């Protein structure tokens, strides 16, 4: 990762991370070069913030969250004069209980 965000460390697999940038080249998208999973990205809208795949964090699972807002990835806030963020929908996890 170019530069560093205070408090963020990769504990395992840093040697396997690959990076891609597209369009404006301002965001950095990191992924595992072996399995392809998206791990994290440096945000285009705020390069001092990271977006992190919760499935890559020790002790957390995507299923720990009852609801997750999904943003429209094709309409970026920086491309809109009012810097609006567009929501595509909400993912909900409803545990099945004893199966």
UniProtKB/TrEMBL annotation:
Source superkingdom: Bacteria
Name the InterPro entries for this protein: CENP-V-like, CENP-V/GFA, Mss4-like_sf
Arranged from A to Z, the UniProt key words for this protein are:
Metal-binding, Zinc
Q: Which Gene3D superfamilies match?
A: 2.170.150.70
Respond yes or no to whether keyword Iron is given for this record.
Answer: no
Identify the residues that the record assigns to the CENP-V/GFA domain, covering every copy. Answer: 1-79
Q: Please name the SUPFAM superfamilies in this protein's record.
A: Mss4-like
The similarity comment for this entry is:
Belongs to the Gfa family.
Q: What is this protein called?
A: CENP-V/GFA domain-containing protein
Q: Please give the organism.
A: Sphingomonas hankyongi
């Amino acid at each position: 990762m170019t530069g560093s965000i205070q408090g963020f460390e990769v504990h395992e697999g840093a040697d396997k991370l690959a990076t891609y940038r597209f369009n404006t080249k301002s965001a950095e998208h990191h992924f595992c070069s072996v399995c392809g999973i998206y791990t994290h990205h440096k945000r285009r809208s705020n390069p001092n913030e990271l977006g992190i795949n919760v499935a890559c964090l020790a002790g957390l699972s995507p299923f720990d969250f009852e609801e997750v807002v999904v943003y429209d990835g094709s309409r970026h806030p920086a491309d809109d004069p009012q810097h609006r963020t567009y929501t595509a929908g909400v993912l909900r996890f409803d545990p099945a209980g004893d199966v």
